[in-house]
Amino acid sequence: MTSVAGTSASPAISIRNLFVDYGPRRILTDVNLDIPASQITVIMGQSGAGKTTLLRCMLGLKKPSSGSVNILGTDIVRASRRELNAVRKQMGVAFQGGALFSSMSVAENIQLALREHTSLDEKTIQIMTRIKLDMVNMLAAENLMPAELSGGMTKRAALARAIIMDPKLLFFDEPSAGLDPSTAAELDQLMITLKTTLRMTIIVVTHELDSIFKIADHIAVMANGRVIEFGTPQQIIASANPEIQGMLNRKPRENIVDTDAHLRRLVGG
Amino acid sequence: MECNLKSGAGYDLLELSGEVDLQYSPQLREKILGSLRSGAPLLIDLGRVSYIDSSGIASLVEGFQAAKSAKLPYGLLNISATAMQVLTLTRLDKIFDLYTDAAHFEAQL
Amino acid sequence: MRRTLEKTGATVLQWLEHTGRMFNLLLLVSFELLQPPYRLYPVVRQMYFIGARSLTLIVVSGLTIGMVLGLQFYNILQRFGSVDLLGAGVSLSVIRELGPVMTALMVVGRAGSSITAELGIMRITEQIDAMDCMAISPSKYLIGPKLLAGLISVPLLTMVFDFVALFGGYFVGVVMFGVAEGSYVNGMIDTVEWSDVRIGLEKSLIFGLLVTLICCAQGFYMHLTKAGSQGAEGVSSVTTDAVVLSSIAVLYSDFLIEALF
């Protein structure tokens, strides 16, 4: 078993001996992972592998049964609420459905963190909001309500909201879910730009293979609540682990050989 | 962040150093707008700025707008490569007047 | 037999857990509201949603109930030749009992259910998680203003109800049936004591807090119940539960208060 998955330079996030249980069910078993700074790390795995639970632990939304999650120098498992919130102000999260606040406009959604945590001038807030909206190509949607947005627009607004305070860490939960290929590709490009220009550490939880190999600097593969492999895309592709090969090779649907059996399956009896 | 406002040969020079982030950008904003209110052209020296975030950039943008309304010359001096990348990302690289030499700015006046 | 016992036990435990959670929520929000920054605008906004939007309903139901009371009491009192007690009868019933209770029940239906639905939807679409991750306390930001608004609005609405209901009784008694205006009004003033008014107000305060707390908690903690995994249907079911629970809570605490004081 790999001892600690990661690279040697000081990691942005360090997870050690993480165990998570929901009641009697063990969801995560002995997860050890280092997320390298200023890189894009993809956490991939089938549904039920534990990726979402791992993400929620990193965000401080789920307390593990044991283990530590060290983010930018603070172990958020043991931290007080104030310390946790101090770390959270350096994190941005783009949730799967966008999770935009339904009673606020796009601009108000994006600005909320600024209004709550800073005493910046109104004009400054407005300019900052528009800069981020422009980055995700959504300036025209400034005053729309979340219900009026399409799927792609929702994701982009959520991203603008996530990066409003120029966070050091940016998390994506299934970013390409429900997007058409060209919007998904645009989003991928944006992620790469945010990494190179703003030096953000980006963590992406997904099972979408196409995006993974385009954007990832590192990949952590999860199965059955464990991290079974960690490495560069090249390393993962070359992995001898049959489970990983299974995930990567999309097995074509077997050609129908036994027509009788198939007919029976379709028609019954 | 440290900022020094020097009034000189027909224009104000605002020297910035250190990190311009959420904590310090209100200060920067005040300095910029204050200088423009006094009616002098403004050149902002960013040569020793190690980091500038979007609140800092927003202050620079607001200054640009104010200078434009007051018809005063407004320029950024010695902007670093990283800050330049950020400006390009936010498509602001084309709107600012960027200088590598204060003399060029003076010549414009 | 055993299975029934187990199921009952499990349900009771669930209820206890839920009640404990609500109490914890109240403590948490109270603590958080005491810390800066103090924002008045969200409270005012919630007072509009809970209070102002319920106003028409309260006025209409208050008037109707006042009139019904007037009718009922008149019928009864007439048989004993004591119609001059009409004012006293209507006002005591309204100020002490019907005012606070009916107002609270109207608010449950009008505002309480939509609070539960709103918070429930925010919960299942991860909006509350998103707020949490922005280092903004969802309990302080979302629930605090609602609790304060409920605490302020419901007593105010109750006073409106009382006023309108007393007028309804007056209308039926004096205008329709010709009871002497003087006896109606004096009956009111003589019989109603400060303790009646005070208890009526205390009830409305308690009901306001109870109703808002229960409705908020039902939506906010939806993810900790079975309904949390049921999406839109789950929101529907916690909303119905909230209405039922808070209505029962109002009626039961009304009884408790009357019994103890």
Short description:
The complex is a heterotrimer of chains A (269), B (109) and C (261). Chain A is of the alpha/beta class and 269 residues long.
Overview of this protein structure:
The complex is a heterotrimer of chains A (269), B (109) and C (261). The longest helix of chain A has 18 residues, at 181-198. The mean pLDDT of chain A is 89. Chain A is built from 10 helices and 10 strands. Helices cover 38% and strands 24% of the residues of chain A. Chain B is α/β, with parallel strands linked by helices and 109 residues long. Chain B has one domain: Transcription Regulator spoIIAA (2-Layer Sandwich). Chain B is built from 4 helices and 5 strands. In chain B, strand 1 (2-7) and strand 2 (12-20) form a beta hairpin. The longest helix of chain B is centred in the middle third of the chain and has 16 residues, at 54-69. The radius of gyration of chain B is 12 Å and the shape is globular. Chain C has 9 helices and no strands. In chain C, helix 4 packs across helix 7 and helix 6 (138-176) crosses helix 8. Chain A binds chain B through residues 118-121, 123-124, 127-128, 131-132, 134-135, 164-166, 193, 196-198, and chain B through 21-22, 25-26, 29, 53-55, 57-59, 61-62, 85-86, 88-92.
Structural features:
heterotrimer, A: 269 residues, alpha/beta, Rossmann fold, 6-stranded mixed sheet, B: 109 residues, Transcription Regulator spoIIAA, 5 strands
At the fourth level of CATH, the homologous superfamily of chain B is STAS domain
Integer average pLDDT of chain A: 89
* Rg value of chain A: 20 Å
Oligomer: heterotrimer
Number of alpha- plus pi-helical segments of chain A: 10
Total strands of chain B: the figure is 5
CATH architecture of the largest domain in chain A: 3-Layer(aba) Sandwich
Strand arrangement in the largest pleated sheet of chain B: 1-2-3-4-5
- Which class best fits the helix and strand makeup of chain B? alpha/beta
